[in-house]
Write a structure and sequence with these properties.
Elements lengths: L2 E2 L3 E6 L4 H16 L3 E2 L2 E7 L5 H4 L5 H4 L2 E5 L7 H12 L3 E6 L6 H10 L7 E5 L7 H12 L7 E4 L1 H4 L1 H12 L1 H4 L7 E9 L8 H6 L1 H19 L12 H9 L2 E3 L6 E5 L2 H5 L9 E8 L9 E6 L6 E8 L9 E7 L3 E9 L7 E9 H4 L6 H10 L6 E2 L1 H18 L5 E3 L5 H7 L1
Parallel strand pairs: 1-3, 2-4, 2-6, 4-5, 6-7, 7-8, 9-13, 11-19
Antiparallel strand pairs: 8-18, 9-14, 10-12, 11-12, 12-13, 14-15, 15-16, 16-17
Helix pairs in contact: 1-15, 6-16, 11-12, 11-16, 12-16
Length: 433
């Protein structure tokens, strides 16, 4: 049966930008066409220059065009927000979601003007893209300023990896399968590796990458959240999503860097030419180790690794179970992308006359059983409309992640990156550096 959602106005700041065109608007098209949900949506695209709907909507967006309007306004001018307020009164929706598809420096002026124009009551929400600061202090200042105008319950900080189907499944998978739930601790697990490899480089994002790098862009958000999902205590009811944020936070607060000096900072050959900066020290590859003070996880190394221009594109969580006297270790792989599913490596007797072992996979793939998986942006929008916050990072989670990395950040920017050749695996880069 279709899920009836409250009438919602989605206001997109920066509707003509790359993020909106490539991800947000296509996601809204899919939602409008979905039979699973009944969404009464009014979409208002805001831009600094005058736009028509046809300037930003594709020919495939017919279902969206009938409920889509544009409004020209200067985000820094308080008077322009009066036009926005009038538009929203005309729409008369039960709730309003402001989606920030704008550069980080544009966020606070918008927040201040929304607050000054009384568009910050209970029916209003903020849907915000990362980055959330560049270190602990800047994140704290950003959060404090937003809290002057909006309550924490109104702020939805997007982490697209949390919205991926495989990431959502982690808590359900571990909490509802006794085979893994009862051995999910340091007594049985040897180590955990969380790896995100990308084939592409920085492409046309060099200017952004020069300001962030892999540690701030990818490790602090995506990989740290995946680590929290894997390490958090399972919910008694696996579909009680109200507890997920607090349990992720509890897991994060137990984590710390194992050895800041041993973290690997590397940059692929050719990056400096792409960035037009021959002396750039910005990293495109990071590998670091964490440890947890949770009694269930003490002594287990947790490695986070990400890099660009590597051999393959894949994101996965690798859980290595301890060897017993005669058995080999078993590897559990939680596959996030591009393949989505679960794979368990088992040792079996190789057929034949010799006594030999062979490693074979026992696997499950979402693509094998389901025709289509919702894209992360679709899930983000639907959950924001539903007021369900488990896919979003709380302010406390953001600060906890920055706090873990702060000992590394104090010397990180000055550290010279090692160089690596494009096309290697993450393990090859680690070995060579």
């Amino acid at each position: 049966m279709a899920d009836k959602l409250p009438s919602t106005a989605i206001v997109i700041f920066g509707v003509s930008g790359d993020l909106s065109r490539r991800y947000l608007l296509p996601a809204l098209v899919e939602i409008c066409q979905s039979r699973e949900v009944k969404a009464q949506l009014n979409i208002l695209g805001l831009s600094r220059r005058e736009l028509r709907a046809s300037d930003v909507l594709s020919t495939k967006a017919a279902d969206l065009a009938s409920r889509f309007e544009t409004l020209q306004m200067d985000y820094t001018q308080a008077d322009d927000y009066k036009k926005l307020k009038t538009k929203l009164k005309e729409a008369a929706c039960e709730q309003v979601i402001f989606y920030f598809a704008v550069p980080p420096q544009a966020v606070l002026p918008i927040v201040r003007n929304l607050g000054a124009n009384k568009m910050n009551g209970g029916k209003f929400r903020l849907l915000m893209e990362k980055p959330f600061g560049t270190d602990y202090d800047s994140a704290k200042q950003l959060i404090d300023e937003i809290n002057q105008h909006f309550k924490e319950s109104q702020v939805y900080r997007i982490d697209h990896y949390l919205a991926k189907e495989a990431a959502q499944n982690i808590a359900v998978f571990l909490g509802s399968n006794a085979l893994f739930r009862d051995v999910w601790n340091s007594q049985f697990i040897e180590k955990i590796d969380i790896v995100a490899e990308e084939e592409i480089g920085v492409a046309n994002r060099a200017e952004f990458w020069e300001q962030t790098g892999s540690l701030r862009d990818f490790v602090q958000s995506h990989l740290m959240q995946l680590a929290a999902l894997v390490l958090m205590k399972p919910c008694p009811d696996v579909f009680d999503f109200s507890q997920v944020q607090s349990r992720r936070l509890a897991a994060l607060r137990q984590l710390e860097l194992a050895d800041a000096g041993a973290a690997i900072k590397a940059q692929y050959e050719g990056y400096r030419q792409e960035a037009a900066n021959p002396i750039s020290k910005v990293e495109t590859f990071v590998s670091l180790k964490l440890k947890s003070n949770d009694p269930d996880w003490q002594g287990i190394p947790i490695t986070l690794t990400t890099g660009k221009r590597l051999k393959t594109k894949q994101t996965e969580i690798r859980v290595y179970f301890k060897k017993t006297q005669a058995a080999q270790t078993n590897l559990l792989r939680l596959l996030i992308q591009p393949k989505v599913g679960v794979e368990l490596e088992l040792w079996v007797k190789k057929p034949g006359y010799e006594q030999e072992l062979q490693k074979l996979p026992l696997d499950f793939s979402y693509q094998q059983y389901f025709d289509r998986l919702p894209e992360a942006y679709e899930q983000v929008i639907i959950d924001a409309i539903r007021s369900r916050n488990n896919l979003f990072a709380s302010s406390e989670e953001v600060l906890a992640s920055w706090k873990i990395l702060q000992p590394l950040l104090s010397s990180w920017d000055a550290r010279e990156p090692m160089l690596y050749k494009p096309g290697q695996t993450a393990q090859q880069v680690i070995h060579n550096t």
